[in-house]
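Handout, page 2. Input:
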Amino acid sequence: MLLTALSVNLNKVALVRNTRHLGIPSVERAAILCLQAGANGITVHPRPDARHIRPEDVRALHRLLQSWPGAEFNIEGNPFHNLMDFVSELRPHQCTLVPDSEGQFTSDHGWNLPAESERLRPLIAQARSLGVRVSLFMDPLPQAMAQAAAVGADRVELYTESYARAWGTDRQDEVLRRFADAARAAQAAGLEVNAGHDLNRENLTDFLRAVPGVREVSIGHALIADALELGYASTVEAYLACIARAAGTGPGS
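Output:
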């Protein structure tokens, strides 16, 4: 059984760094420590206003990852803003297309398909022609998964905030069933499944136990918050333990 890959989103490291002009904390150093601890990849979401990850960070991380065979680089963003420039220049392993507005506080919804399909199709084809895997940020709507496949995506990233809000409440099982149904619909359409947004050490194992075949989780805010208390290495190891428990291969599984 393949374990779900853990990709660490470093946006919040850059956000803290950008409050001063000292270059600390270092985004590159954070990436190294997370990879040394066993993280499977690095994610960044460079927004047009550069309020956290900056273009030079994206390029520096791309260079860094050349020394880490097997670790993946995932660049997120809106393909109608600045994402495709990075995709064309750097050809990361994966690009995750997110329908954010330029000044949006954080990602909060998936693509509206088929309404956006014709706009997305040529950009997805462009990325795939460069050898870049394409993942679409999607709400957990089973009926939309075939449309994501039809537009040319390789994967979908299920937007998990609704699960995080429901975790620990009497709605948890109902919401998890919706995500499981969406994952099965995606897989039936030939897509692989990623997931991300507000996943954390408390809710991650339950999610992965209930939702079949999740290939990758991208976690930033909670993981970096945990790292402030535990350090990068211990935090990454804790998240990997959550993944292992979900697969039945770790302590407490």
